[in-house]
Amino acid sequence: MSDQSHTHQAVAWAKQRLDDVDAIISEIEKTSDSLKDTARKEADAALARLKASRGTIQKIYDDLRTEAQAVKGSVEDIQDALEAEWIEVESAFQTYLSAVRDQAETVREVVVARAKAQRRSWEASLTALRQQAVDAVDTARGEFDAAIKRLSDEAEKFQARIGEAKDAGDESWKAVKGGLADARAVHDRTIQKIKDAFSKLL
Fold it and tell me: Is residue 115 part of a domain?
């Protein structure tokens, strides 16, 4: 997979995480007024942790988008940093759920909001991957068609030369063999591009 593809995936992954934590924070803020005493303190502490993590993730996401062209080799490091911060998000979220465990409706609303945010992110990613696959297949098909045309042109030249002179046979045959080898190489690359494009969808 290319560095550019890794960068694109890292940006999409960071955006999904940002959307997810935004959904969690939004729902927690809506329900925090209804909590009492200890549950309220624990929920507020969890919310503060979530907001701090959200700020860190936003900065990472912004930096990644700004540096997308230059990032290339450091994409894995950035994903590791996001993964480490995401552990804090999950931990804070679990703390919140524990604090409000007696309020089933509150828990349900937060979990539903998070699921909706995840679904929107996944659908956006899938749409982008589908378009990449279509583009890759179209490009590969064009390259393959061009290679087949070259092979066909060489075969026609070979056919015309057969009747002209017997000694021209070796040169014509070499040209056809070269065209066939080129077409086979393009065909192999085309099939690999198509496989790569579809593997991204699975």
Answer: no
Q: What is the pLDDT of residues 154-199, one digit of tens each?
A: 666 666 655 554 444 566 656 656 666 666 666 667 666 666 665 5
52: number of Cβ within 10 Å? 14
Q: For residue 120, give Cα distances in angstroms to 20, 23, 66, 126, 180.
A: 10, 11, 23, 10, 47
Judgement on whether residues 88 and 139 belong to the same structural domain of the protein = no
Instruction: Look up residue 7 and give its amino acid.
Output: T
Structural domain range at position 144: 133-199
User: How many helices, marked H, and strands, marked E, lie in the chain?
Assistant: 6, 0
Q: pTM of this prediction?
A: 0.51
CA distance 136 to 189: 11
DSSP 74: G
One domain for residues 74 and 163: no
| Same structural domain, 147 and 89 | no
Q: Residues 137, 54: one domain?
A: no
Backbone angles phi, psi at 165, to 5 degrees: -155, 140
First vs last Cα of the chain: how many Å apart? 15
